[in-house]
Automatic annotation (TrEMBL):
This is Tetraspanin. One of its GO terms (biological process) is cell migration. SUPFAM superfamilies: Tetraspanin. Belongs to the tetraspanin (TM4SF) family. The gene is CD151. It comes from Sparus aurata (Gilthead sea bream). Its main location: membrane. Keywords: Cell membrane, Glycoprotein, Lipoprotein, Membrane, Palmitate, Transmembrane, Transmembrane helix, Ubl conjugation. InterPro entries: Tetraspanin/Peripherin, Tetraspanin_animals, Tetraspanin_EC2_sf. Interacts with integrins ITGA3:ITGB1, ITGA5:ITGB1, ITGA3:ITGB1 and ITGA6:ITGB4 and with CD9 and CD181. Interacts (via the second extracellular domain) with integrin ITGAV:ITGB3. Interacts with ITGA3; this interaction modulates ITGA3 glycosylation pattern. Interacts with F11R. Interacts with RAC1 and CDC42; these interactions mediate physical association of RAC1 and CDC42 with integrin adhesion receptor complexes. Gene3D superfamilies: Tetraspanin (1.10.1450.10). The keyword rRNA processing does not apply.
Amino acid sequence: MGAYEEKKETCGTICLKYLLFAFNFLFWLAGGVVMAVGVWTLVEKSDYISLLSSKTYAASAYILVLAGAIVMVTGVLGCCATFKEQRKLLRVYFVLLLCIFLLEILAGVLAYIYYQQLNEELKQNLRETMTQKYQQNTQEQITRAVDKLQQEFKCCGSNSSSDWAESVWIRSRDANGRMVPDSCCKTPTELCGRRDHPSNIYKVEGGCITKLEKFILDHLKIIGAVGVGIACVQIIGMVFTCCLYRSLKAEPY
């Protein structure tokens, strides 16, 4: 009877080991996805980040990159801990899972806070950024971001194309008679911004604010969905870790 119980316990431990190994492999892949989403947000959309006064959106992306890197390292550690059957390593692994879980909660809280203040921030800052910083010295990144924003989202101005009438650059000689930047044009050519007729430039209700707000909200949803997905997987992993930890005999001291 005792031999049967020992064999049964051994089989249970082996099953847990392979379940935890499978989890760690998926967890490692998920870490790569999380890190890729964060890096993509920072690299591909860095121009848009420069248009925002708050750093919360960028901070959420950095947290994703950090969490993704830790997840990948943790996945490797989890595999080692599982096959070596060392309770100390399992303890370290569990603590790392918990830390990642807390990081994801932090990223989620930041994303939620930013979601609440996003519309107000865009209303207060985007118009001023466009009119005061576009085509100004040392503001090349802002200029590039505004041009990219207007072309990619097919919009003109913060709220409407008439916002550009207050632009420091449009009022200067450097504008060469332009009424809006050339990036407002449906077919951008040199000095096409001199004609602000709807047939020539983008006339979008709500301007670029509504377009940029939707873009950021969509990305916050992606960040949130990735975070929730990984968190759910982690909870399963922590349960498996606890079960394997309890099934292993205490290490002799």
